[in-house]
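Feature request disguised as a bug report, sorry. It would help if multi-protein outputs had a clear separator. Right now it looks like this:
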Amino acid sequence: MNKRDMEYLNAYGNFHAYVPGENPRIPKKSPLSLYEKQNKNNKIVKSLEEAVRLSGLKDGMTISFHHHFRAGDYIVNMVLDTLAQMGFRNLTVAASSLTTVHAPMIEHIKNGVVTGIETSGLRGELATAISHGLMERPVVFRSHGGRASAIMEHQINIDVAFLGASSCDPFGNANGYSRSNTGKTACGSLGYAKVDANYAGKVIIITDNIVDYPNTPFGISQKLVDYIVKVDAIGNPQKIMSGATRFTKNPHDLLIAEAAAKVIFHSGYFNDGFSLQTGSGGAALAVTRFLRDYMVEHNVRASYALGGITGAMVRLHEEGLIRKLLDVQSFDLDAANSLKNNRFHAQIDANYYASPFNEGAAVNQLDIVVLSALEIDVDFNVNVLTGSDGIIRGAIGGHPDTAGGASLSIIVAPLLRGRMPTIMDRVNTIVTPGHTVDVLVTDQGVAVNPRRPEIAERLKAARLDVTTIDELKARAERVVGVPEPLPFGEKIVGVVTYRDGSVIDVIHEILDENEC
């Protein structure tokens, strides 16, 4: 290549001549074997403290975590303890969800290490403390799809993501299971972590299982990972997931599930190639048990099942009743093993799953979704976040995402929980707006949203027990009466956002008896 040729080329673009060994960004050719490269030229650092220093984390920044390890998670507490010891202050925790195991965060909030939380849910002692006004800044609650879009659109700017992985190779290819069968823990899909890995300023993988390169197929690619920390344990395997999610034996749940399956069958959406999502427990999970019988009897196959995947869905897939599984979160070991072994069981991220601004999001292609509720009101608004006592004890999850995207959204709930009615004039906390909810199935009848008269006509024609939501509410109140108003204070402890980031409700602190 001579000078004249380069002058000619530069008239049409920015070219530069090749010079052997000049570009420092290109790793130099190495005579080392793969084994030697994995042990010398890799992203593994000696400690979590070193990874934090290298990441450039500073006071006031935002850190993120995923919740795929559920109540068995060790990562959040491990990282926050380390950051507290290193003297960090004023951090915002942007976790996909927080649960009972994260109670130690209370002390880090009191000590000023954590001053902000953005999450899908809270449970246990941490949730109770926050409900009673622990934090100065309200917690921001987002749905799974809302969180994904907020990260993508930089409403949440993650400075450092601390992501636990069940396996990782020395260069950062990470996953929620191990093909080498050497892993201590498995969580299956890393669907929520994948968004963080794509958009965080720095990504630190924390694992107890370094495997040989390449760790494929991977949930998180090496190109997104900056540092790897190996620890003794990332979680408690027994609390991360069980062998299989079991069907409920509660007769009320089974009655509701059977009724919901009948609603699906007669809804007009039960056709060959339909798509569905069901919840992971109680009546919502049991619906698949009854739906299977209809599918076999009428030779109907589902095109795909979506969301948090359970062993029940896996069994339908392996029977050939569901063609594909789109897995953003694996709920049990059966699901995790299926993700590893079944070709058409795919790991998807939360953006693909439920981003409200992505027309092709999987929730928008759903025919049917079956969801649970803590409360529902006469306008079909649903609460899955706060209990009848006003305490935060749940998670938004994908509830509003799927209800807003599916052609038919079905809520399953008992009419009564103990001495408390499920249906009321207004729910304590609106999570899913009523205009996106189509049918309520209880153990004492079915109510159809007046916005969907065609559904009501089909169910009545099938002689299902269809009534109004006002009548169901009246039935409940004849048994248990009307609940007393809760002792809410003026302080706002939680901001509930809808899929698009708009504020749909707020959560006020619950006052102690001596404060009322």
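(second protein starts here, but nothing in the output says so)
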Amino acid sequence: MIVTRSWLNEWIDLSGVSTQELIKTFNSIGLEVDSVSTYDVPKKIVFGRVLDCKKHPDADKLNICQVDLGSSVRQIVCGASNVRAGLDVVVATVGAVMPGGLTIKPVKLRGVESEGMICSAKEIGLEDIYDGIIELDSSIGSYTLGEEICENPIFSDDIIEIELTANRGDCLSIRGIARDLCAAYDKSLKEEKTDENDDKRLGIGRILALSHENNLNVNLRYKAVDLKELKLPFVVRLRLAQIENSRESDIESLMHYATHSSGVILRAYNHQFFCNKNETLAKISLCQDENGYASIMTKEDKKASTVGIVQEDEAKATDNGGIVLIEASYIPPDIISKKMQESKMIAGPMYYRTSRGSEPDLDVGLCYCVSILESNSASSAFGGTIELGDPNEDKIISVSKKEIDEIIGANIDKAKITKILKNLGFDTTKSSANNFVVCVPKFRHDITNKQDIVEEIVRLVGIDNIPSKPFSFTEENRLRDDYFTYKKRRDYRHKAAFSGFFESVHFVFDEKRVLEQYGFETIDESKELLNPIVNTLDTLRSTLLSGLLKAASNNSKNGYSSVKLFEVGSVFNSQREESVRMAVLFCGDRESECLSNAGKPPKVDFGFFVQKISNIIGEFELKEFKTTHSLSHPFQSARIIIAGESVGELFRVHPDVEESYDLDATYMCELDFSKLPSGLKTAKNSSKYQASHRDLSLVMPKEMHYEKVKSVIEEASVEHLVRFYPVDKYSDESLGQNMSLTIRFVLQPMDKTLEEDDITKSIQSVLDALKDKLGISIR
């Protein structure tokens, strides 16, 4: 956002405020200054007036001018096509050193004496705004002939470029920036005073009628001007060049100038575009177009513009004169941004302002624009306005004095808070003794909660003015939950890295189409992103798996035969509620090619991947489980159980998905990070006596789940049994519909070394329990 000191001075009195102080204030209130430049017009360049202008007798393109410099009249030969008698100009007198290094001296041009140079804007270091010399007018303020132009504030101006954050749409205008400065300096904003004398003007209702559909969330206001002899003043041309926003026609340039100055979106229409043949009454219709956008149409359904987005070329006003309709519009930024996301269309130069939040006080911009028009042309405005407004509910935020002090970390005087909020345009008249009830002004689209209110207070108080507090050294443990959350996350990341996995980090955004394709939960439409970064990141992710698959695919395509990745990050459910998950992926070879595997390393399999996950999260159990999404293999998926609670899922990726991502055998798991164990380890007694191992091969039906066998053994409470686990599975024709499952039992007492009788007794109790409850026995 580009502003100049003189332009700001039209909206706020900056007398007594130096440019350096102004820059410091900008930075302190959160409007970061990106660059500052100053016009440095050399000495001996003065104001002059062309008294007489005659053609050079020996050169068709040269003119001999008599120029009044106040104290004397000088003869200057000039080649500019726009030089003429009566024109006030900028003159470089003899001895002046131009910005390019040229020193002005008396010369003869085709035999005619010339004492000086009549200058163009570029020649004195300004932006190039004319095809010829500068034509001065009253827009630069008062001046005297012969006065050096560097004494004039327009020619000694400071140009300041401010880096605005995307949420500060209210500061995308000179008036918006000045409004923040008024709050910082406790000054009043200058407002344009107009005396329309509507009783003496022809009413706009005679030439314009407006019809509309309801509930379009659009505010419109129209004025009409009989345009005659418009000429943009010098200051307007200069400032448009400074912000690099010049347009083809003067009327369109004026609309952009008034928009940049006031913040109100302004457009100029050709009145005849809306009139039927031989009629003088323009009929405008506001309605939805085929894509659902609020559009300005003729009665014949010919589109003139899409409100807030783009204006059709054939509907634009020209400099040829006639009646011009000036439109001021406002549409809430969240509505227009969401609509553009749903149904994209080519946008015009005003869309950025509309989507970030333009000025809703339409009368300010409209009156400002008409005032400039009438001051710089023979035009006359019609009386009154035609307007359409959709009422918007006031945004009310309540915050207590205690909450403000706690968030800031300092006690701010209540009267000071009230004054700051009032200066910023917030209404606090309904506040009570210890509670602020704040009505947010319509132009502050970025204020949505109490933290935003506190941020505004801090901006104006100044972060440097909030007293620092020393550390409080006490014996109290200052480690809080956030530290232990961080430590848990760090520990699991380190465990994954120590197990050979590489960390992968992705955006919290994902492609909604991909999530829906594989059956993952997606964000509710009412809570979707309004302005996605790109189309492939158009929603908040509900899983880490899709991101890891894309990363693995990229690695595989780059020639890696073994890809081991993990990520710990945030995911969101359909209501945008955030949680943290951990995901792990293993694809391709278990190990690198080496002598021991003859250059043919085995591929990762289910058991190997389970062991890798165990290395990261510790002991767990697996239970048969079918995932709700379609990424998983239908026969190789399981639920991960820790301490009787489900913490996630583990599976092989479906072969079709592996093929679509160009992946080898791939295994993945996703875990609810909050349910993973953390904290201090509890020490347990361990036996100093030798453990005894016994293997039992049980004949059991093929369809019987191991979980049943495990449950029966646990319920038997076998004496001295420390742990047991399956080690082998076998089947052949002789077993028919049965199979042989070998389970290893580890027995270890705390008080002695087991004898053979003790071991036999324990194993027999296991066999008895299995026989009684499941009807199975040893092979």
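Even a blank line would do. Unrelated, but nice: The mean pLDDT is 90.
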